[in-house]
Amino acid sequence: MVVSPPHPFDPITPTEIQLAVRILEATFPGVSLRYKRIDVNEPIKKDVVPYIEAERLRRPLPAPPARLLYTLFHRLDTGAFYKAILNADSRTIVYAKELPREVQGPIDVDEITEIEEMCMKHPAVLAEIEKMQLPPGVTVCNDPWMYGTDSETETRRLFQCFMYLVEVDHPQNNHYSLPCKFSPVFDGLTHELIRMDYLPGGADHANTETQPWKPVKTIQYAHDILDEPLRTDLKPYIVQQPEGPSFTSDGNSVYWQKWRFRVGFNIREGLVLYNILYDNRNVFYRLSISEMTVPYGDPRAPYHRKQAFDVGDAGFGMNANQLSLGCDCLGHIKYFDGYRNDSKGNPVQLKNVICMHEQDNGLQHKHTNYRSGAATVVRNRQLVLQMICTVANYEYIFAYIFDQAGGIELEIRATGILSTVPFDNENGKTVPWGTNVGPGVMAPFHQHMFSFRIDPAIDGFKNTVYYEDSVPMPEDENNPWLVGYTTESNVMKTSGSANTSIDRHRVFKIRNDNINNPITYKPVSYKLQAAPSQMLLVSKNALGYRRAEFATKPIWVTKYQDDELYAAGEFTNQSRRAEGVETWVRRKDNVENEDVVLWHTFGLTHNPRIEDFPIMPMERVSVMLKPDGFFTKNPALDVPQSAQAFNKSTLHAEATSCCGHTGGASVSKAKLYKRLD
Amino acid sequence: MVVSPPHPFDPITPTEIQLAVRILEATFPGVSLRYKRIDVNEPIKKDVVPYIEAERLRRPLPAPPARLLYTLFHRLDTGAFYKAILNADSRTIVYAKELPREVQGPIDVDEITEIEEMCMKHPAVLAEIEKMQLPPGVTVCNDPWMYGTDSETETRRLFQCFMYLVEVDHPQNNHYSLPCKFSPVFDGLTHELIRMDYLPGGADHANTETQPWKPVKTIQYAHDILDEPLRTDLKPYIVQQPEGPSFTSDGNSVYWQKWRFRVGFNIREGLVLYNILYDNRNVFYRLSISEMTVPYGDPRAPYHRKQAFDVGDAGFGMNANQLSLGCDCLGHIKYFDGYRNDSKGNPVQLKNVICMHEQDNGLQHKHTNYRSGAATVVRNRQLVLQMICTVANYEYIFAYIFDQAGGIELEIRATGILSTVPFDNENGKTVPWGTNVGPGVMAPFHQHMFSFRIDPAIDGFKNTVYYEDSVPMPEDENNPWLVGYTTESNVMKTSGSANTSIDRHRVFKIRNDNINNPITYKPVSYKLQAAPSQMLLVSKNALGYRRAEFATKPIWVTKYQDDELYAAGEFTNQSRRAEGVETWVRRKDNVENEDVVLWHTFGLTHNPRIEDFPIMPMERVSVMLKPDGFFTKNPALDVPQSAQAFNKSTLHAEATSCCGHTGGASVSKAKLYKRLD
User: Per residue in A164-178, pLDDT tens?
Assistant: First the structure.
């Protein structure tokens, strides 16, 4: 229930979804429309900055920027696919354009449901199932996938349905344990069967005709159908905040420990953070995961096309879990909701898609003066904003973690279920591009490549990206003992890409050339603690390379443009090339002391372990943004001392309890600090 | 109070310290001895393995291995420095040998106290203080440092005392803010002043005569002498375990979630973990930090000798904080104690030097079946063993973190206070090898290099170290679509070193060639998720390189030998070269399917930020050991579901509460799983 108009950074509201439908119906009178996407469009930055600066400086607010909506839809009469930008304030169309035939929009919820159901009823599929001669009680299901790309000329909208056996009638039966060897390809609009693919059964490229099924037991993960008994010795661990949390919020605006920011949400990126201030200073304008792609390393058809773009093809917001109190998040939890549209244009509420809570991450800083034994101990309280996305088999958990010393961490966890393929792996058979995870089932190697889009505002909206390498000093008279080292600095003056370097301890930083730190005498700055990763393994000559060129370099710097949000471009589904960062940097814009955007590609080359099956212990990768000369000293000095009266820890029996000071062990604690007059 | 004999892996007891003194007094009748080190000596591995295997397999125990003690001491008559190994069972000396003149033992607590006090009374020091013309109330203190090495011929035991001004009479006054420009060098045995060093005052190598002090305000960190008020909006965050912890312990033996291991402690390495089993299978024999070194990058005398070896020169055990309930650790805490000796041979208790507790690290695994909306959610409960060491200005927090899926993480946090030097930095002056952190004070660049010693026992005591790189397949008929990638494996057959590689996603693994996984068909194995880091920056021609050659390569593999424990050798204080891993690998032992040791060097190149001053927000680096084909599926499947009844989270007001299942947002939750008969 929206009482006041949405803030420029607020997610779309149900009223706005309904307004969009009315505007488009009025624009195409008498035409049936099928709505693929109705969402907020990013506000025009030059129009929103005066507004948010007035908010920050507590000045009278100017007119807010126009509230724009982004829509994608099909005309059911002609089949044409359209994009339209709407102005929700004036209730008008800004523009509507028909998209070229080869442009495929993202998948939507209703579409995937239709494809899945249609596949299960198709005669060709039923015929294959018949050939398997399944025993009673064993049925079949499918996961529809985006078809991907292996051609420069395909214009049909295609889906590849991967088929699995359902051995146990249970809502969490693990069908990924029993993949089938046939896979239909459908036209997503006409629902025609294009082709029945047969998957390789062995270690080579030969595919397999559908044979009667040789029963294999499913490797389950759901607790009530496990073979083994559950552990009984895990004791409760309860987090309580009897005085409530340290955060306050007003709608999507959050305040915590000198941080202030707005929580955004859209169907494509999911959680987005806007207008991040620390102690009322600008730090970041916008943070998001702008794309991720997961290419598979199994070289054989049809797997060569397995390269989902989970943001552009589908949407993290669309796939965000609606979180449960006490299951997903521990402690005192606040939730944020979102909205999406269905194919008829009805708003659908997405409850609890983002959770927010505090956590304790151990010690933040400590020092014991060994002479006196007196110590300063401050704990590391953090604020977490989290979203969990289910993308068919996989789960991704995205968390932004704020600390009290000006740091922001992006932590990504991968869990859920490996993508599996059939493989007749009895008698010692293996493949060099995958891991056997069970009888008859293999998990192929793959990479998860993320693009972290960082739109900085380090003390203002004109910044510069540079990097510093740590290098030994030459062996000359300035370095007579041969121990010296310094840093070499390189400014990224024009838009382009850059490499990380462990050997040179390369650190990328973002600074404001117009504001100097009065003690370091250098411009105020933030540094990126990157996650240096192996880049895309596909050949430069593969279509997958051109579609995901963002994933070939760890660092890209572009000059801000309003419509440049997604590292692999706007339309990734069945794309032939990206039209993302690699295209924008070719403009060679000046990016020194400009409104810049830094895109950090990082990832996980994931060669599955058998321990990742049937459900994967989370694998974690993490990137941090930390102040570097932004402050004149540690900004968390004023966080109170960690004390037992506050923390209420309990002592395990057998030990004796301690006393006041923590002593450095190097000097007996009885020795106090002495005055030496 | 020791009731039963210590286990072979138990720390030294006070009785044993006293026994050592009696044995040595009997061996050197009538000679006054000054005891530098009395500690356990590592048990002989071939003697202890049958014992621990009998424990593991619940067989009758053989005789335990001999309980050996390690002692270092001086004869006060001749000044000679001795090492002796004692047998505490037979109460005899195994051997005693006089060490060469150039071998310096580590520092000890009493010695450092004496040097510090002697320095403050020395006439030459008092004369310099006089020259500073300090106002009333401002006094001087010093931090004695190991002298380091810049000569192949020095045989004196030397200390360099770094001097600081104490502006405020408070037990936590931050003297590091006001470094003085003179620094005496003393002979540690005779207490003679060897030399008065004068430190550079500017950006060049020129040193500075002591001048009258121009008052500068100290940048403080202790809460009650801060300029700014404390934050008042941090609400309590309390961890409770009303049913107690999930761990059990019996002396130093710990059991938690199928893990069983023994907690060791010694003065040099501090916390050591022994005999780590998961589900009664051998995983690791011993884990420890075998050395760390911190070379500084300021090329100018006397800083060229700043390269502490905090394990070998001093000792993490010696410097371990005695922890306070509710300050250092949150939740339900168990402590372990240790003992050291003083210079007279008296036992000194080190209470609470290791803490153990559980923590919750978010989600462990989750999957939502998007068709049914049903989800399996399991949280990531961990067991932490932690030690905090104060090394003059710096603090290091070492934590071993066990998870329920067979993983062990070594996490190291650096905090405390930067090492500072004086620098007349008014009017824009900077140096290329350091950061201004306040008026008149600079923090030089430096590296923290750690050696993690991993003595594996992957399902047994003969293992092999190998590494796998992920590489694209050639562009040929086996890879027609140009997407394929595989792994290339390299076995380390002879002792040596190896590099990490991000570009090739190199992963080091440890396997047991004698035991195959029945599903992957590969040997059972653990993998090392390393922390690829910049290696030592000092020149190959510098003495500091030869002293710390372990820090020039990220991976070393040696064949186990009982006395090869410390990566830079046994005696690091004022060493001229290491005699550690770089020496042992030259034997070119066969290390394939052998009793091997893997040494992982990793670190932080630390170019200080001003935000690291006056006390440093912790900087974290982390290494993980994870099963890789050790199990036949995820070993944590049997951890119960995360549920509100167990976790008792609370909902922040304003939101409405949720309902049962977490839904994947891709399908409406009303759609249950359907049978397709």
Answer: 999 999 999 999 999
- Taking CA atoms, A250 is separated from A246, A262, A543, in Å, by 14, 10, 46
Find, in chain B, the residue whose alpha carbon is nearest to that of A532: B502
Reported as a single tens digit per residue, the pLDDT across B104-149 is 999 999 999 999 999 999 999 999 999 999 999 999 999 999 999 9
In chain A, the N- to C-terminal Cα span, in Å, equals 71
pLDDT digits (tens, 9 = 90+) for A356-412: 999 999 999 999 999 999 999 999 999 999 999 999 999 999 999 999 999 999 999
In degrees, to the nearest 5, what angle opens at C-alpha B268 toward C-alphas B264 and B273? 25
Collapse the DSSP code of B569 into the 3-class scheme (helix H, G, I; strand E, B; otherwise coil) and give the result: coil
Give which of A119, A116, A118 is closest to A107, Cα–Cα. Answer: A116
Nearest Cα of chain B lies from the Cα of A473 at a distance, in angstroms, of 8
Q: What count of other Cβ atoms lies within 10 Å of the Cβ of residue B348? A: 15
Taking the CA of residue B309 and the nearest CA in chain A, the distance in Å comes to 16
Q: What pTM value is reported for the model? A: 0.95
* Beta strand spans in B229-374 (E): 238-240, 248-250, 253-256, 259-266, 270-278, 281-295, 307-309, 332-341, 347-368
B337, B10 contact by CB (below 8 A): no
Residue with tokens 């944020």: A336
B199 vs chain A: nearest CA distance in angstroms? 16
Chain-centre distance of CA B312, in angstroms? Answer: 12
Among B165, B241, B74, B216, which residue's Cα sits nearest to residue B648? B241
The whole-angstrom separation of Cα A568 and Cα A566 is 6
SS3 call for B351: strand
Q: Give, in order, the Cα–Cα distances in Å from B539 to each of A88, A223, A478, A479, B301.
A: 64, 57, 14, 10, 16
> What is the Cα–Cα distance from A573 to A157, expressed in whole angstroms?
9
Q: Is A476 part of the contact surface with chain B (CB cutoff 8 Å)?
A: no
| CA proximity to A296, closest of A154, A440, A434 | A434
Sequence letter at residue A224: D
Chain A contact for B646, CB < 8 A?
yes
Helix (H) or strand (E) holding B400: strand B394-402
Provide the β-strand partners of residue A281: A278
CB contact A253 to B (< 8 Å) = no
Q: What is the DSSP string of A77-136?
A: TT--EEEEEEETTTTEEEEEEEPPTT--PPP-HHHHHHHHHHHHH-HHHHHHHHHHTPPT
Crossing angle for the helix pair B109-121 and B123-132, nearest 10 degrees? 60
A487 to B657: CB separation less than 8 angstroms, yes or no: no
Q: For the residues B92-100, what does the mean pLDDT come to?
A: 96
Contact A296 B237 (CB under 8 A): no
Q: Tell me, what DSSP letter sits at residue A646?
A: H
- What ipTM was assigned to the predicted interfaces of this complex? 0.94
With contact defined as beta carbons under 8 Å apart, do B254 and B208 qualify?
A: no
Strand, coil or helix: A4: coil
Catalytic residue among A10, A39, A310, A595: A310
Select the residue of A416, A439, A471 nearest B367 (Cβ to Cβ): A416
Reduced to 3 states, what is the DSSP secondary structure of residue B22? helix
Q: Is B295 in Cβ contact with A639 (below 8 Å)?
A: no
Q: CB neighbours (10 Å) of residue B299? A: 25
- Smallest CA-to-CA distance from A604 within A453, A452, A447 is with A447
Interchain contact, A172 vs B353, CB within 8 Å? no
Rounded to an integer, what distance in angstroms lies between the CA atom of residue A315 and that of residue A11? 15
* Residue of A35, A147, A296, A394 marked active site: A394
* Cis peptide preceding B5, ω within 30 of 0: no
A124 contacts chain B (CB < 8 A): no
